Amino acid sequence: STKLEQIYEGKAKKVYKTDDPELFIVDYKDDATAFNGKKKGTISGKGVINNRVTNFLMEKLEKEAGVPTHFVKELSERETLVKKVTIVPLEVIIRNIAAGSMSKRLGIPEGTVLPIPTLEFSYKNDDLDDPLINDYHALAMGLATREDIDTITTLAFKVNDYLKTFFAGIGIELVDFKLEFGKTTDGTIILADEISPDTCRFWDSKTHEKLDKDRFRRDLGNVEGAYQEILHRLFGE
Ligand code: C5P
What we know:
- With 237 residues, the chain is an alpha+beta fold.
- The chain contains six helices and 14 strands.
- The chain has helices spanning 46-65, 100-106, 135-140, 146-168, 214-217, 223-235; strands at residues 3-9, 13-18, 23-28, 31-34, 39-42, 71-74, 79-83, 86-87, 90-97, 113-123, 132-133, 172-183, 189-192, 200-204.
- Strands 8, 9, 10, 11, 12, 13 and 14 form a seven-stranded antiparallel β-sheet that branches.
- The chain is globular.
- 35% of the residues are buried.
- The mean pLDDT is 98.
- Bound molecules: cytidine-5'-monophosphate.
- Pathway: Purine metabolism; IMP biosynthesis via de novo pathway; 5-amino-1-(5-phospho-D-ribosyl)imidazole-4-carboxamide from 5-amino-1-(5-phospho-D-ribosyl)imidazole-4-carboxylate: step 1/2.
- Residues 6-233 form the SAICAR synthetase/ADE2 N-terminal domain.
- Belongs to the SAICAR synthetase family.
């Protein structure tokens, strides 16, 4: 597929049209932002790692867990061919262990194992700082239909069941993560965006060392090393 004009530039990725109306190309950048763009920086090599990690996990989810995804084909170190979707403007967050905004908002100490995995929706809106909403808000604002929300919920827990077990097998606790879903032109809901150290909290099972973007958000140092460690655990490189 030929890369045509850029249609979108986000904080960490650019998206291009292709000569096939049903396919887009995603291009991963090294730019890092946190706190809705208030903190900016670069994580050297991040784009290459997030591209490979996302594609590896999406392929496994598709083949081994039956989760439909936008992944089509890795084109280069930073570029991937994906199915064209319209993104549902919800950030779908699954949590297995309390951390981050959940700990802050609810006063649950970071590291508390939750008795059941928990799902949250945020309304994807930079001006409003992605506020936490429930399914009724999503329906009332016309962000998704009841059917979409039910499909998204089922798929998100399926992703969690699969990834939690998979990461445990390589010595990593999957603390929490954010997913985004999209609608194809025929109306099917599929998993889109990325699954990477930018969008997941990964803790080493033994040492509880943070191996994700929290190292950047909280100025913990060795950010690049953490991203490389995830690549190493997945690919043995
Ligand atoms: O900040 P919070 O605790 O709500 O984040 C929960 C999870 O969602 C974390 O894994 C974080 O990396 C991810 N997240 C994200 N993009 C956002 C907000 C959160 O990937 N805009």
